[in-house]
Design brief:
Blueprint (H helix, E strand, L loop, with lengths): L7 H34 L9 H9 L2 H32 L16 H4 L1 H18 L5 H5 L7 H8 L3 H28 L5 H37 L1
Helix pairs in contact: 1-2, 1-3, 1-8, 1-9, 5-8, 7-9, 8-9
Length: about 230
């Protein structure tokens, strides 16, 4: 059994399971963040009983807080095995420029050939994001201090156009990463017949676009709210 996880298939399985776990987190994270947009529409942005505030309170529950280290472990495992598989593929296929041949498969999309580079961009900007939100909210609560107001964090983080631009680049890299990673994860766990693989590829673009547009809307909406405050 242990030999399975040492094989290429086993490593891909670990990557797929950890990737699906992170996809679920993205959906939860987007849902809670999008509450801030709804608060703006209902004129409850900044209200103590606003949907976004309630969502942040939910994320502060002990059972959710315990999930943070598990989530971090999921990221580490996903990134670690991504590097292992990429290095293995580079060695077996003749280096980084292995795709510059006349027999390129049609399934070799730009995203599939650059998953590691996209992953590095996503990871780098994730660290940038954690220093803005997690460090000022959950980390503060872990240390027994009062967390910053989540609405203030939104308007501060997205208070300048260049920070919004950085985040949009992040969301764009995430879009490319998901268009391949979403269906590839399901393919690895067995949903790889001719009927489902086509459906999953369509769902991958729908899901990736939903994530991109959702988070981008949150960023732009927060920027607009910051302008109102500064006016």
């Amino acid at each position: 059994m242990a030999n399975i996880f040492k094989s290429s298939i086993g490593k891909k399985l670990i990557m797929s399971i950890s990737g699906l776990f992170l996809i679920l987190f993205l959906l939860l994270h987007l849902t809670i963040n999008f509450f801030s947009v709804i608060d703006s529409i209902t004129n409850d942005f900044g209200a103590p009983d606003g949907l976004f505030q309630m969502g942040c309170d939910f994320m502060s529950l002990p059972i959710i807080t315990v999930m943070v280290p598990i989530l971090a472990l999921g990221f580490i495992i996903h990134i670690m095995y991504a590097c292992i598989l990429t290095i293995s593929n580079l060695c077996s296929r003749g280096g980084y420029f292995r795709y510059k041949v006349s027999s390129n498969a049609k399934t070799d999309s730009w995203a599939s050939k650059n998953m590691l580079a996209l992953g590095i961009i996503v990871l780098g900007l994730l660290v940038f994001h954690l220093t803005h939100f997690w460090a000022d909210m959950q980390l503060q609560e872990w240390m027994g201090k009062e967390a910053d107001n989540p609405y203030d964090l939104l308007t501060t983080t997205f208070g300048t156009w260049w920070q919004v631009a950085i985040y949009v680049v992040w969301f764009g890299a995430l879009w490319f990463h998901l268009t391949h990673g979403f269906w590839s994860a399901f393919q690895t766990i067995g949903w790889n017949n001719k009927i489902w693989i086509g459906r999953l590829k369509v769902l991958a673009y729908i899901f990736a676009t939903l994530i991109f547009l959702g988070f981008t809307t949150v960023a732009i909406n927060s920027y607009m709210e910051a302008l109102k405050i500064g006016a």
